[in-house]
Amino acid sequence: MNELCPNGVERVKLNEICEIYDGTHQTPDYKNFGVPFISVENIGNIYNSTKYISMEDYNKYKIKPQINDIFMTRIGSIGKCAVFEKDMDLAYYVSLALLRPDNKRVNSHFLKHLIESTTGTKELRKRTLVNAVPIKINKDDIGKIKIPVPPLEVQRKIVRILDIYSEKNTQLTEALYSEIELRKKQYKYYRNMLLNFDNSVEWRTLGDVCEIFTGGEAPKESIREKVSRDDYIYPIYSNGVGNNSIWGFAKTYRINKTAVTFSSIGTIGCPTLRQPYFTPIIRLKVLIPKDDNVLSVKFLKYSLETVEFGHQKSSVPNINANMLKSISIPVPPIEEQERIVKILDRFDRLCNDLTDGLPAEISARQKQYEYYRDKILTFKEEDYENRR
Fold first, then answer.
1. Residue of 34, 46, 381, 347 whose CA lies nearest to 184
2. What is the pTM of this model?
3. Quick check: 4 and 46 in contact, CB under 8 A?
4. What is the largest CA-CA distance in the chain?
5. Which of 24, 35, 218, 313 is the least buried, fewest Cβ under 10 Å from its Cβ?
6. Residues 6 and 150 sit within 8 Å (Cβ to Cβ)
7. In sequence order, what E strands does 180-323 have?
8. How many whole angstroms separate alpha carbon 232 and alpha carbon 252?
9. How many domains, the chain?
10. Quick check: 94 and 76 in contact, CB under 8 A?
């Protein structure tokens, strides 16, 4: 950098170094085989589409991807990129932009890293239509963003560094995910072993030991947002896992005790421990132990994970309250329940806790990569006075 651009790096508009196109606006006529068709959902692996269009339809495309072109998401999740590196036919939807860099001025992989960096993200954000549903950036506005373009020699060296770092980061992340899968198998093994009781332990129906509630309509005063605001502080839950189960927030609540929610329509199961003050809506059942000295709420949650649930035969699988009430679970002495819960809690934290387990390490590695990527892609702006 000191040798080739001592006065800083020139900023140029993207449309000065790239041709920019978008995909077909027409709803595809999908076939069982033919030319692979991709959209925004395929950006993680553009060669792994399961959708196809006919060669006849593909021949209508005025702009077909070429090696070193870049696909960029422009609807929903904006600014994710993939470099096209195979000699093959590939059709693409309007949710993707196709960038064709002038390779005499900019390296395709450098441009991908730059667009995905904090610098590129901020530039795209300036021209993103954030009030659109879903959010998007117009094709012509993509070309108006300004980016730093150092000499090609610098670009190639940056790409080599980031590719090596990214590859090592990917390898480590894959190893950590493998470790998580092994830990989950280990967790299930010990959970099933610890909860494998014979008839020496009392078995009781859920209807006998639990209050069971069925979710209803959302409160009238509620908001469809993932984060609470103002006095809308009580979560509303539907079925799903993690943040995907948050339907919104309300000013009031229906459940005021620690409880286990249970998905009863569509996906059956997914028992989840919920803290007090929330409202369940349709698709959820709520179970609360009638007596904490008889049944621990956490033990209830772990027990429900081991139950194989039947369901009503219908177009959408579902289990009603009466079916749930008839299910039997083991109810050992409360001291034994608490011992089992302590063991299983440790395994659960290791697998799932984002602040105290392997997922936290994966998140930290990704943040570390992004930090160094942004550092290496931050350039001093060219000083035109000194240049003259």
1. 347
2. 0.65
3. no
4. 91
5. 313
6. no
7. 203-205, 210-214, 222-223, 234-237, 246-250, 259-263, 269-274, 279-280, 284-289
8. 8
9. 3
10. no
Write out the residue range of the structural domain in which residue 36 sits: 11-150
**Quick check: is 5 in a domain?**
no
- Exposure letters 231-249 (e unless 16+ CB within 10 A, then b): ebebbbbbbbeeeebbbbb
Sequence-separated (6 or more) residues with CB below 8 Å from residue 13? 143, 144, 145, 146
Task: Say yes or no: 229 and 267 in one domain.
Answer: yes
The strand pair at 234-237 and 279-280 is best described as parallel
Q: Are residues 140 and 29 in the same domain?
A: yes
